[in-house]
């Protein structure tokens, strides 16, 4: 049986051995809605948002894909066109494996299929937990949880690179843009965080969530 998190190594190795490296600039599209699903992708470095256009003309960010994550496999494996679009939030290096090759690899290598299944199961569990959070928790808690998920802990502080706009964050956690701005400013004034130039430092990671 594959050990916990070993699936990440298997998928990374798969893309390093079979993928074609593409470099994308900040805000560049990797694919757009309704395009043919030609490739499966692996984030070698950078940050990618998976978003969907809404009827009101707004764009809703549904997921973020960080370094070491696979995306774009669902439509390939189900034979569908792209349901959403992928766009780089930061300059990114992405490995591409053609759809037909990826499908063949999942059929010929049980370890790859199992690793992909485990990875998708983790995402499903995370999504279920996140939906529960949206329903049952106040906005401040949801924002704090979002920041801690994005951040990197060093000693007792959490450092967060925040390339998303306040509006994009509001779509993800389910509130207004104004509420995001007001909450971050309030935390900054109280010394709970340091916030400047799209970077957030949570000053006391142990007390941060418990004091909300």
**What percentage of the residues does DSSP assign to strands (E)?**
25-35%
Enter the CATH topology name of the largest domain: Jelly Rolls
In CATH, what is the class of the largest domain?
Mainly Beta
Count of individual beta strands = 12
Morphology:
globular
**Helix/strand/pairing class, anyone?**
alpha+beta
How are the strands ordered across the major sheet?
A: 1-8-3-6
Question: What order do the SSEs take from the amino end to the carboxyl end, as H and E?
Answer: HEEEEEEHEEHHHEEHHEEH
Question: What is the CATH superfamily of the largest domain?
Answer: Jelly Rolls
End-to-end gap = 40 Å
Q: What level of helicity do the residues show?
A: 40-55%
Largest sheet: 4 strands, antiparallel
Named CATH architecture of the largest domain: Sandwich
Write down the Rg. Answer: 18 Å
Low-confidence segments: none
Number of domains: 2
Number of helical segments? 8
Domain HTH crp-type: 137-206
Pfam families: cNMP_binding (PF00027), HTH_Crp_2 (PF13545)
Domain Cyclic nucleotide-binding: 22-123
GO molecular function: DNA binding; DNA-binding transcription factor activity
Structure summary:
It contains eight helices and twelve strands. The chain is of the alpha+beta class and 212 residues long. The longest helix has 27 residues.
Describe this structure in words.
By secondary structure, the protein is α+β, with helices and mostly antiparallel strands. The chain folds into two domains: 129 residues, Jelly Rolls (Sandwich); 71 residues, Arc Repressor Mutant, subunit A. 44% of the residues lie in helices and 27% in strands. It has eight helices and twelve strands. The strands form three sheets. Strands 1-8-3-6 form a four-stranded antiparallel sheet. It has a four-stranded antiparallel sheet with strand order 2-7-4-5. Strands 9-10-12-11 form a four-stranded antiparallel sheet. A hairpin with a 2-residue loop joins strand 9 and strand 10. Helix 1 crosses helix 4 and helix 3 packs across helix 4. It is globular, with a radius of gyration of 18 Å. The model has no long low-confidence stretch (mean pLDDT 90). GO terms for molecular function: DNA binding; DNA-binding transcription factor activity. InterPro entries: cNMP-bd_dom (IPR000595), cNMP-bd_dom_sf (IPR018490), Env_Response_Regulators (IPR050397), HTH_CRP (IPR012318), RmlC-like_jellyroll (IPR014710), WH_DNA-bd_sf (IPR036390). It comes from Paenibacillus naphthalenovorans.
């Amino acid at each position: 049986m594959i050990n916990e998190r070993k699936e990440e190594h298997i998928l990374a190795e798969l893309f390093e051995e079979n993928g074609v490296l593409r470099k994308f600039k900040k805000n560049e599209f990797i694919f757009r809605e309704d395009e043919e699903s030609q490739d499966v992708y692996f984030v070698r470095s950078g940050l990618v948002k998976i978003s969907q256009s809404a009827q009101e003309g707004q764009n809703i960010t549904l997921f973020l894909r960080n370094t070491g994550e696979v995306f774009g496999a669902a439509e390939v494996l189900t034979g569908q066109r792209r349901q959403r679009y992928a766009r780089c939030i930061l300059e990114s290096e992405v490995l591409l494996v053609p759809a037909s090759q990826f499908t063949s690899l999942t059929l010929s290598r049980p370890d790859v299929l199992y690793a992909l299944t485990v990875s998708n199961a983790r995402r499903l569990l995370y999504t279920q937990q996140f939906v529960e959070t949206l329903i049952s928790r106040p906005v401040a808690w949801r924002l704090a949880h979002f920041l801690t998920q994005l951040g990197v802990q060093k000693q007792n502080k959490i450092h967060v690179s925040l390339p998303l706009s306040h509006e994009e964050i509001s779509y993800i956690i389910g509130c207004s843009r104004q509420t995001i701005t007001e909450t971050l400013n309030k935390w900054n004034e109280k010394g709970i965080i340091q916030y400047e130039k799209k970077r957030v430092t949570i000053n006391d990671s142990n007390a941060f969530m418990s004091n909300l």
